[in-house]
Amino acid sequence: MSAEAPTIPLLTPYKLGNFNLSHRVVLAPLTRQRSYGNVPQPRAILYYSQRTSKGGLLISESNSVSDTAQGYPDTPGIWTKEQVEAWKPIVDAVHDKGGIFFCQLGHYGRVSNTGYQPNGQAPISSTDKLLSPQIRSNGIDVAHFTTPRRLRTDEIPLIVNDYRLAARNAIEAVVVTGCYSYLRYFDTYHHVGFDGLEIHGAHGYLIEQFMKDKVNDRMDNYGGSLENRCRFALEVVEAVANEIGAERVGVKLSPFSDYGEAGDSNPKALGLHMVESLNKYDIAYCHMAEPRMKTVADKVECPDSLLPMRKAFKNTFLVVGGYDREAGNKAIAENCADLVVYGRLFLANPDLPRRFELNAPLNKYNRETFYTSDPIIGYTDYLFLETTT
Ligand SMILES: Cc1cc2nc3c(=O)[nH]c(=O)nc-3n(C[C@H](O)[C@H](O)[C@H](O)COP(=O)(O)O)c2cc1C
């Protein structure tokens, strides 16, 4: 950042575990549906490197952990060799510009339909309750679902293992294939790939389908009590942390959200139980959606706060949802968060940290092109400050 502008809280350095961040403006995980055939495309090299700043943290769009994990068209995965190879140049480009890049791992669970599933089978979930059609976060598209198949208790470890294998793949995306063990013991190797993983435990997808009591209707060890409902999430965290090291693991949670009909009767207790449990694993960060974001797109007035979770979590705390420059600065200045994650503003302003530094006007985002598959329009054609002034 240049010396002429006064330093604002968002642009102060921060140490995230072993990573030295130069500022606190984080790129949110943003599904863009431009990974044709579920394989990341070369155009993503430009998209991500546009949004990279030296010492800035980026979180990738959600990557499906297996062929049962998908739910939307052309979202990337990280379970095949081809997908792993396709991520490498994207990760390299971010590293070339000095960025720190975490890969988000997800499983849509029942937020899917037979069209996205292997052999046209039913999507899997904690439940067999059908989700009604949902308006997507662009406020335009409506997604339709198929009645899910409730996972048997003995199948759950297999899904946990899918996360573990995907985590290994993401790390193989970062090191020379076959030299995976070097990553843990010789850190010098990590610069050739993803620096860490974020487990997507938010927004009504599979992990929330277990955590939230409005969805989970299981009678086994994965249903009923709060501890039981959080068991799957924590087993995933443990498996991934054991695979790549807890210091490279983050988790995204949205205890207060209602996305995908996945609400909870006591979100504060859920949020607190999760952060207290995550403390035991000593993971790098917890990334939490603001209670005002009941859905991805709508900000509502809400008396709830993330502060109890922020205070209870011992490592780095990221907040997301409806932040602008002023609210982000306030959150850092008042110690409500360590890092502030920006979704739609970063999508439309590739140089967002620079614009915040200069207090420059922002490009407006266009919801209509959030999920259109054009490799340029609404993807890599948002202008930089230098080109707009
Ligand atoms: C187009 C779009 C795609 C998104 N994709 C993801 C995703 O893949 N994973 C995720 O955790 N959140 C996803 N989100 C949610 C954002 O990460 C973020 O939490 C949300 O946009 C609120 O932040 P904002 O108000 O700064 O936009 C998406 C949001 C949008 C608008």
Automatic annotation (TrEMBL):
Q: Which UniProt keywords apply?
A: Flavoprotein, FMN, NADP, Oxidoreductase
Name this protein carries in UniProt: 12-oxophytodienoate reductase
Domain NADH:flavin oxidoreductase/NADH oxidase N-terminal: from-to ranges = 10-362
- InterPro entries attached to this UniProt entry: Aldolase_TIM, OxRdtase_FMN_N, Oye-like
Q: Which cofactor does it need?
A: FMN
Pfam families for the chain? Oxidored_FMN
Give the source species: Quillaja saponaria (Soap bark tree)
Protein family according to the UniProt entry: Belongs to the NADH:flavin oxidoreductase/NADH oxidase family.
Return one GO MF term: 12-oxophytodienoate reductase activity
